Amino acid sequence: MLEPLVCELSQPDRQGVGYPPSDVPLSELPAGLTRDALPLPELSEVDVVRHFTRLSQLNYSVDTGFYPLGSCTMKYNPKINEEVARLPGFTAIHPLQPIETVQGSLALMYHLQEALKEIGGFAGMTLQPAAGAHGEMTGVLIMRAYQKDRGETQRNKILIPDSAHGTNPASSAMAGLKVVQLPSDERGNVDLDALRAECDDTLVGLMLTNPNTLGLFEEHVLEIAEIVHAAGGLLYGDGANLNALLGIARPGDLGIDVMHFNLHKTFSTPHGGGGPGSGPVGVAEHLVDFLPAPVVDIVEPAEEDIPPLYGFVTPKKSIGRVKAFHGHFSMMVRAYTYILMHGAEGLRRVAEDAVLNANYLMARLKDTYPVPYGRICKHEFVAEGKVEGAPGVRALDIAKRLLDYGFHPPTNYFPLIVHEALMIEPTETESLQTLDAFAEALLQIAEEAREDPDLLHEAPRTTPVGRLDEVKAARELVLKCEVPA
Amino acid sequence: MYSPHTPQEREKMLRVIGVERVEDLFADVPAGQRFPALELPPAATEMEAAEELGHIAEANESVRDLVCFLGAGAYHHYIPAVVDSILRRGEFYTAYTPYQPEVSQGTLQAIYEYQSLMCALTGMEVSNASHYDGATAAAEAVNMAYAQFRGKRTKMVLSPALHPHYRQTVHTYTRGTGLLVTGDDGRPEEGPEALIPLIVENTALVMVQYPDFFGRIYDYTALAEAAHEAGALFAVSVNPLALGMLTPPGEFGADIVTGEGQPLGIPLAFGGPYLGIFTTRKKYVRKMAGRLVGETVDGQGRRGYVLTLTAREQHIRRERATSNICTNQGLMALAATVYLSALGAQGLRQVAELNYHKAHYAAERIASLEGFSLWQPETPFFNEFAVKCPRPVAEVNEHLLEHGVLGGYDLGQDYPTLEGYMLIAVTEMNSREDIDLLVNILAESTQEGSHARTFSL
Asked: Contact A453/A378 with Cβ under 8 angstroms?
């Protein structure tokens, strides 16, 4: 056992945090509506601190090492973001306060909307979606509403390339749309003939990830936009890979009508062990009226010495609300700070260095690990996790062996169109020395694969636990602990 | 600016790649759209950014400056120092979703503990690793009920006393899918029994809130039975802090419990990030959306935790997945876990009861004021209650704000029959002096010459 469970640490009648006695007269508790047992664990504060500190030490994280997880953009999370997001003026405000009392927050949201519009080339923006997939769903609902508003109610088909994130088809299905998958061509682009064949009057639109999940820029993006638009469809952009395009190209200029941003990837807000994220959605002029409500806007323009009054407005044909309140505000504070500290040149440098780092790693590794689509990549690339002369070794083994070298492995077995995929995204915040050490480790592992493959099969050996029995977990479904009665 | 490269290093890397300039890496981007000039403010240093963000934050009036009686789904509670102390650990907040369990046992065990505590609190058998918030968790309950009956039951009965934002979110999620949402436009004056006649043979789900949007506490046993008799699922959206004293929904027939976890150690933060709670019965686990952590062992028999039943999820099943969700609110779930561990059974009961007593003291005093009356004085409530005001709520609130008090929620915004009613929330953060201040200003607001307009001049 690495660390006991909180239930196991519980001792009857222990209490970490207490409260003062009531300073008002006590009222009778509601008869028949109160509970007897409250089986929560009982710990002292020092128990709690040690328990969760020890748990934290079982984690790998960006703060402790290189995390080249493809498609996740595990860049450094600046510490200043954490400080400013915790200012009492940001944390201790209620979402339903009168707008006059929250002009700071509203101004921040307004200026973040403006900055994201400028970066993405969009006319409108909502900050409400809670994460990337939530933004996708919001975008698809906007597309559907637009087609319906035009009277094109027969349109129910969405096209998704086989190189797309798995969330794209799932988000479309949630919006009740029919998903048709498009193949990729030999250069990793969308197959244009297949696209043309599907472009009929049932088309809602196409969801394009650019750069795609192979890390490749879609070379026919302008042509794709033209074909989709000519058929009355809309072009959705999956912004998960925007880190490669900051200041390089604006998706809106490339013909994208609607796109979600991932503040937790591109704009440095931390991933939090799986969230919270934040997934703002930008739209072109013709979709502005469909944005979720409410959107932040200037409700009274500035006058000479008086700043403008910011408030909430409801777009005319809004799809409605996609969550309670206004979105993940604390994440917006972090992203705003990040943009503020970079400016236009700094953001372009982010994309340049992200792409430089990915291409450098690819150049160092491609002779050992085959890269099926070997052209210049963007922020990430996908190699095959197999080694010549080591037939029994799989991508999974290589990934697990990397753990013994102290590195977080790349994303493996995604995208599905590459056999034994290892998807590597270094991000711009990693140094040449880190990249070299990682490349050396992978080259060394290839040697080991040929000479002593068991080193890989039995990896990892140096981690807190070894490979875990996932079949047992799924079969037995032990999903909670209980405090002993 | 967090790039470590020196100009010499960049040169070296370009040589290894085999291109001359960084620009050459972008030759595949259409020339006409390449390298746009972005109009953004010039880059600030950390020192400048910290100063500017400080100014922006100061432009807000926080609930530290004001005495807060505003709730309506987000509550001002005390957050013990230990919570943020743990959340600030880089090993937790800079990690990703635990895809590599060997180096993610911290996150995985914490989620497993979160699942355990949510089950204990709600009286249910399984919990997922969380959703975005109370609203999206409610929408996922609707999706799950629809999937449970394979689309054959299409009617969802929602209580009008379910948070307006949650109902709006459910409508956004279900529009155009053939689902019919009913009941939510009903009269909020009526109790849960008014929903029973709406339950028909193709009802998939009946959903209520507990305590409801108005703070009311009902025994939902009869409603749950009516739902089950018709073969439908019964879902309850909870305030988890109230479950420190109230009967857990698992004891009165809930099949799904959702809720907003914000009261459990998560700051108001202008609305987010919060925490969407989702628990259910074990027999429905395969229809539940979201991440799930299970216990297992490694090759040496050591106990460990992994993401399990992932075959339900979008990265494997794509358009056939139970949901498109691919994150949870990891760090917020951790906050709730630390909060509950630090308070324990006694602490949570204590804080829940403090909320109850203070709200009842406030209600009693306000009800004694001339011109004010409680909406439904006979109905039990938790820490929130509706009050009829002698003047428009907006005016009363304006008057309160002049005196540094953040008044309650104007119910007329969402419920036409409750024009002139204010929803007042009282928590452990409100001292008796705060409550007396509120009562005194309310009393004053009814008097001649105290019209808010005159104060604002």
From this structure: no
Q: How far away is chain B from the Cα of A302, in angstroms, using its nearest Cα?
A: 16
* Dist. CA B223–CA B239, nearest whole Å: 19
Taking CB atoms and an 8 Å cutoff, what residues of chain B touch A53?
A: 86, 89
Res B449: pLDDT: 47
The overall average pLDDT reported for chain A is 96
pLDDT (tens digit, 9 = 90+) per residue, A272-299? Answer: 999 999 999 999 999 999 999 889 999 9
Structure tokens at A51: 């328990």
**Can you read off the two tokens belonging to residue B73?**
């789904």
Residue pLDDT, tens place only, B194-234: 999 999 999 999 999 999 999 999 999 999 999 999 999 99
Contact A187, A211 (CB under 8 A): no
Handedness of CA A139, A141, A146, A147 (dihedral sign): positive
Q: How far is CA B319 from CA A168, A178, A411, B284, in A?
A: 8, 9, 21, 20
| Global pTM value | 0.97
The residues, ordered by sequence, that sit 6+ positions from A180 with a Cβ below 8 Å of its Cβ are A157, A158, A159, A160, A198
Distance CA B205, CA B215 (A): 22
Q: Which residues contact B43 (CB under 8 A, 6 or more apart)?
A: A340, A341, A342, A343, A345, A346, B1
Tell me if B92 and A86 make a contact (CB, 8 A cut-off).
no
Concatenate the DSSP letters of all residues of A340-404 into one string.
HHHHHHHHHHHHHHHHHHHHHHHHHHTTTS--SS-S--SS-EEEE--BTTBTT--HHHHHHHHHH
B100 with A326: Cβ contact below 8 A: no
Q: What's the mean pLDDT in A457-470?
A: 96
Q: Are A134 and A279 in contact (CB under 8 A)?
A: yes
CATH of A80-340, one of 3.40.640.10, 3.40.50.970, 1.20.1050.10, 3.20.20.70: 3.40.640.10
Kindly state the average pLDDT of the residues A3-12: 97
CA B347/CA B341 separation, integer angstroms: 9
Q: Is the pLDDT of residue B88 over 60?
A: yes
The answer to whether the beta carbons of residues A356 and A416 sit under 8 Å apart is: no
Residue B213: helix, strand or coil by DSSP?
Answer: coil
Instruction: Write the CA distances from A256 to A138, A139, A143, A420, B107, integer angstroms.
Output: 15, 12, 12, 31, 37
Q: Write the DSSP string, B377-420.
A: TTS-BSSEEEEE-SS-HHHHHHHHHHTTEE--EEGGGT-GGGTT
Question: So where are chain B's domains?
Answer: 67-78+344-456, 81-338
Name the pairing type of β-strands A258-260 and A281-283. Answer: antiparallel
Set of chain B residues whose Cβ sits within 8 Å of the Cβ of A483: 120
- B289-339 pLDDT tens trace: 999 999 999 999 999 999 999 876 655 566 666 667 667 899 999 999 999
- Name the class of domain B67-78+344-456: alpha beta
Asked if B190 and B212 count as a contact pair (C-beta separation under 8 A), the reply is no
Q: Are B288 and B309 in contact (CB under 8 A)?
A: no
**What count of other Cβ atoms lies within 10 Å of the Cβ of residue B12?**
14
A381 to chain B, closest Cα gap in Å: 13
Nearest chain B Cα to A221, which residue?
B30
pLDDT class for B452, splitting at 50, 70, 90? very low
Find chain B residues with C-beta within 8 A of A6's C-beta.
113, 116-117, 337, 341
DSSP code string of A282-306:
EE-GGGGGGSPSPEEEEEE--BTTB
Q: Which fold has domain A350-470?
A: Aspartate Aminotransferase, domain 1 (3.90.1150)
Per-residue model confidence as pLDDT tens digits over B135-157: 999 999 999 999 999 889 999 99
Where exactly are the structural domains of chain A?
80-340, 350-470
Q: Provide the CATH number for the domain formed by B81-338 in this structure.
A: 3.40.640.10
Provide ipTM, 2 decimals: 0.97
